[in-house]
Amino acid sequence: MHSNALQPTGQGLDSSAQPKTFVAAILLVEDEPVTRASMAARLTRLGYRVLEAEDGRAGLDVARRERPDLIIVDWMMPEMDGPTFCEAVRRDPLLKSSQILLMTSHDKPAQIAEGLLRGADDFLSKAASRQEITARVLAGLRTSRLVRELETTSSQLESSLLLLQAKQEEMETDLHSAAAFVHSLLPPQGSPVQGISLAWEYQPSLTLGGDLFGVMAIDAEHLGLYILDASGHGVAAALRSASLMTFLRAENIIQLIGSYDPEQVLFEANRRFPLSADGEYFTLWVGQLHLPTGRLTYASAGHPGALLSQTQSPARWLMRSSFPLGFDPSALYACDRIVLKPGDRLFLLSDGIYEVSSPGGELWGRERFQKTIDEGKPMSLSATIASSFSAARGWQQAQHFPDDAAVVGIEMTGDPDERLNG
After folding, report:
1. Which helix (H) or strand (E) segment is 239 a member of?
2. Per-position DSSP letters for 63-110, written without gaps between them
3. What is the DSSP string of 349-399?
4. Which residue from 131, 137, 191, 316 puts its CA 20 to 30 A from 146's CA?
């Protein structure tokens, strides 16, 4: 490991007893003083030597003079914006191998492609968490060290580049394997019990997503349902969600509290999954369907709710205002009850399906989602869910969702006797 180039020296130790190590230098090019000061302070706390420049031209001068290990440059700047700065760096023989992290609020595929084409190596969202900033900076510094070693070992250039490619492919393979594992935890589509149909569609915003759900038999007379949403995106959110998903397994809940009563499930989940030190949390909707009567008991911890679609009336939301998990360790969650009849459909969904914006910035919103569900009543359950995803993609004019998007639907297709006999 090349940790000396990436990590600061040990703090709090006797400096006379420690060998001096190289502290990586990071150049921060940002015209907005408050943002620049905040990011510089964060990088300094991580132990790096931070160089600052207030615009692209000054940044080029500092880069030529200091040859920093990593350059973080803002996209939007006067006179010379981030992509133009990247092009200037790539044209400069002294700097063309520099690693550039483009800091931006743009997250659309076309804009990301533009940044990569014009010379950026990676992207950093201005809304990124502390963990993501640390990870991307470390990744950039690792690459920077490798590239500079390659500059001095030209005879090994081809094999080193192949090694980098293999490592990248290995990382991609690991991510896809993890995504496949998470996907395997989701309920199989079809008919969980006789007289009930299940269909869903799920598209994480990244390879791994943090919005997960479950539909499972609790016992001969009860079906359990839940949908959870982890704050944040990517690997960290997915790992936290998988942990909560494991907790919500029927056999675990029955062992802990003796039933799948939604109120008790939320109380126990709230106690076991407190707000993290970084402010990460969950929202969770839990329901239990009594098969003989069709009675649905449900409760929510900060989740935007579920949508009930009935054949003879407009769809309506099943929701109650409440705190997400972890905000108040002593919080109590009240249950509501309804009776589902043959032909009724219940949709559990994440807010990522309707919180998509048009190119002009207008949200698609809950009302348009509800209208799409109402218009889909003549269609099959799976076709109705597919139409909601199609409408959301059409509204934002993009295939990729900025947040995890999930819609889970169950339909009461038979009478209670059929469900029990099944």
Report:
1. helix 234-247
2. HHHH--SEEEEES--SSS-HHHHHHHHHH-TTTTT--EEEEES---HH
3. E-GGGT--B-TTS-B-HHHHHHHHHHHTTTS-HHHHHHHHHHHHHHHHT-S
4. 131
Closest CA relative to residue 335, chosen from 264, 233, 276: 264
Strand partners, 230: 282
Task: In whole angstroms, give the CA distance from residue 168 to residue 156.
Answer: 18
Average confidence (pLDDT) over 197-222: 88
Tokens of 13: 């130790």
Q: pLDDT for 264-275, tens place per residue?
A: 999 999 999 988
pLDDT of residue 418: 53
Residue with tokens 């639907």: 409
Q: Domain spans of the chain?
A: 3-152, 185-421
CATH H superfamily, domain 3-152 = Response regulator (3.40.50.2300)
Size of the chain in residues = 422
**Is the sign of the CA dihedral 174, 176, 181, 185 positive or negative?**
positive
pTM: 0.59
Confidence grade of residue 12 (pLDDT, cut at 50, 70, 90): very low
Burial of residue 79 (number of CB atoms within 10 Å: 0-12, 13-18, 19+): exposed
CATH topology of domain 185-421: Phosphatase 2c; domain 1 (3.60.40)
Contacts of 418 (CB under 8 A, 6+ apart): 194, 195
Sign of the CA dihedral 387, 306, 242, 255?
A: negative
